[in-house]
Amino acid sequence: MKNYYVYILASKKSGVLYIGVTDNLVRRVYEHKNNLIKGFTSKYFVHHLIYFEETCDVNSAIAREKQIKRWKRDWKIELIEKNNQEWQDLYPEIIN
């Protein structure tokens, strides 16, 4: 069964946020970290994986991404800090 991920990247604690969806979290975050895809994350140095959710349904992943993108910034920060109060980069945890 395939997994899908909704993820949030940040430039730094309380910095610029980026919300995305992918079916390969390790690969996608690697692409962001290494500026392999030109755009928002490379322009604003948004390279730290600070939050992610996993689901086996692509439609619910896309719906969740859209939902979080519509949220006020305070709500997004609350979601992040519920599980990652210090905004630690979670990438090392997912590559193991």
UniProtKB/TrEMBL annotation:
Gene3D superfamilies: GIY-YIG endonuclease
Pfam family, one: GIY-YIG
SUPFAM superfamilies: GIY-YIG endonuclease
Residue intervals passing through the bilayer: none
Superkingdom, taxonomy of origin: Bacteria
Sequence ranges assigned to domain GIY-YIG in this UniProt record: 2-78
Family stated for the protein in its record: Belongs to the UPF0213 family.
Name of the protein this chain belongs to: GIY-YIG nuclease
Organism name: Candidatus Berkelbacteria bacterium CG10_big_fil_rev_8_21_14_0_10_43_13
